[in-house]
Specification:
single chain, mainly beta, 2% helix, three-stranded antiparallel beta sheet, 1 helix
């Protein structure tokens, strides 16, 4: 069997909400829906035995995504966090002092146009900013809220490219 056939670019293929988006049928509730997922590997059966689960002629059912790893993160959530980012770029113009002498009590005036998050290259190449990928966790060993960096799970924040205008005045 080819254990890597369900892995693309080092990441497991995870089902979507429909068959067209890669969802697998599951019927734990008595109604068949296509929101299951499949992660190849070795699976422990309820009787305590283990079986290789590679998806071919296997009696192991697909599980709903919501029960894939509810209390901890797993390999599908981890990715290489190597990245290069052009974080900010700005263009500024400072008015000459001769022009400012005509304006009362202004020592310096400059105007700037800026933008952030211009370019992002990641080793994982999955469209996720490693600086924004995290998993929030609270009350583990009474240590309060923690943010585990580099774990992409349930983060649906879009990539934004803000553009702004700035005026600096010194009196």
């Amino acid at each position: 069997a080819n254990e890597d056939k369900f892995i693309k670019n080092g990441f497991y293929i995870v089902g979507g909400p429909t068959v067209e988006y890669g969802g697998f049928p599951e019927d734990f509730s008595g109604t068949t829906v296509n929101d299951g997922y499949f992660v190849p590997g070795v699976v422990q059966l309820p009787d305590g035995s283990y079986v290789e689960n590679l998806g071919e002629n296997n009696p192991i059912p697909y599980l709903p995504y919501v029960v894939s790893y509810p209390w901890q993160f797993a390999t599908p959530s981890l990715f290489p966090s190597d990245f290069v980012k052009l974080r900010e770029i700005s263009l500024s113009y400072q008015l000459p002092r001769t022009a400012l002498q005509k304006l009362a009590k202004i020592d310096n005036l400059s105007v700037s146009l800026f933008s952030r998050n211009i370019v992002l290259w990641t080793k994982a190449d999955i469209g996720i900013d490693p600086e924004r990928a995290f998993q929030a966790e609270s009350s583990r060993d009474n240590r309060g809220t923690q943010f585990k960096q580099g774990i992409e799970r349930y983060n649906l924040e879009p990539w934004v490219l803000p553009i702004g205008f700035k005026v600096d005045l010194t009196f």
